[in-house]
Amino acid sequence: MYQQLIEDFIKLEGLPSSYAEDATVWFLPLLAELETRLSNKKQRPLVIGINGAQGTGKSTLAKLLSLLLETRGLYTANLSIDDFYLSRARRLELAAEVHPLLACRGVPGTHDTQTALQILHALRHATASDTVILPLFDKATDDCVPAGLCPRLNGPIDVIILEGWFVGARPQPDTELEKPINELEALEDADGRWRHFVNQRLAAGYQPLFSQLDFLILLKAPGFEQVYEWRQLQEEKLRRRAPSNASGLMDDSEVRRFIQHFERLTRHCLSALTTQADWVFELDKNHRLCGRSDLR
Fold first, then answer.
1. Do 289 and 282 meet the contact criterion of CB atoms below 8 Å apart?
2. pLDDT value for 296
3. Among 59-68, 77-86, 250-259, which stretch is predicted with the lowest mean pLDDT?
4. What sign does the CA torsion over 85, 89, 92, 93 have?
5. Where are the alpha helices (DSSP H) in 110-251?
6. Which of 35, 95, 145, 279 is deepest in the core (most CB within 10 A)?
């Protein structure tokens, strides 16, 4: 019953035809597992986290799961950690107050975690008469979208999906923060203030959010080397969709520097979440799924 839905989804999203095979072989069993989890859960909603490095297909998987779940009569809310970024103005304040690298969106400490917790609480308890406004962040302008232009949902919600590149991550031991991991850290965070701040924020503001996940999925890239290539492809897609005067777009050199902000925590996730996530999907260098581990 799902094949036509998957084919239509591939056309709508502009995905390669090979995605149909991957979805059938890998994601339909996941769907069955989620339905089992939901039927065994005493109180809805089921909260699902999707973790993966940039370009691994997190948002695409979240959209597909939402579509397939809704065909089963299940009402879903699809959230991205990216949509909880602080405004550009607030990040510039952080850059002046704490460290210049915090002007760049992405790492823990550049999100509004209190709003994320409030939205999650509202979705958990929403009734048919309640309206929840979901925040949006426009990467082309590098700023928050006005509330009047953001989507609205009414309850009750059966499934909440939260996707993001470090969703479910736990902080690193301080000893792992001592040595710079790349040129950005060596030249612009030589004393480690930025990376220690990021780790502290991950330990504080994000763990209450991630503790509410009922099920965590990891889309595991074969290595960090592929992340830069895949992030370039994302930027190319963004350029095609964005207006010509969009201020948040990056060229190749800017993407290379940008991705270094994420390298430390991405490598940490690739290592640690392999044994912490509920389901792990292995990706090969051609962006195809090639293995799966069910850890719980």
1. yes
2. 53
3. 250-259
4. negative
5. 113-125, 183-188, 193-201, 207-210, 224-241
6. 279
Mean predicted lDDT score pLDDT of the chain = 92
With respect to residue 5, please indicate whether it lies within any of the assigned structural domains.
no
Which helix (H) or strand (E) segment holds residue 50: the answer is strand 46-52
Give how far Cα 208 sits from Cα of 48, 66, 170, 173, 202, Å: 15, 24, 11, 19, 10
The pair of structure tokens assigned to 147 is 């509330």
- pLDDT level of residue 100 (50, 70, 90 thresholds): very high
Eight-class DSSP state of 202: I
Spatial separation of the C-alpha atoms in residues 56 and 167, rounded to whole Å: 14
Q: Would you place residue 295 in the very low, low, confident or very high pLDDT band (cuts 50, 70, 90)?
A: low
Q: Return d(Cα 223, Cα 130) in angstroms, integer.
A: 43
Taking the C-alpha atoms of residue 39 and residue 29, their distance in angstroms, rounded to an integer, is 15
Per-residue pLDDT of 178-203, as tens digits, reads 999 999 999 999 999 999 999 999 99
- Residue 151, domain extent: 18-294
Q: What is the pTM of this model?
A: 0.92
> What's the structural domain count of the chain?
1
**HSE value, Cβ hemisphere, 13 Å, CA-based, for 193:** 12
Give the residue from 139, 207, 194, 198 showing the smallest Cα distance to 167: 207
Q: At residue 74, what is the residue type?
A: L
CA 167 – CA 129 distance, rounded (Å): 30
In a domain? residue 68 = yes
The SS3 of residue 166 is: coil
Distance CA 237, CA 57 (A): 13
CATH number (domain holding residue 116): 3.40.50.300
Domain presence at residue 154: yes
DSSP 3-state helix, strand, coil percentages of the chain (rounded to 5)? 50, 15, 35
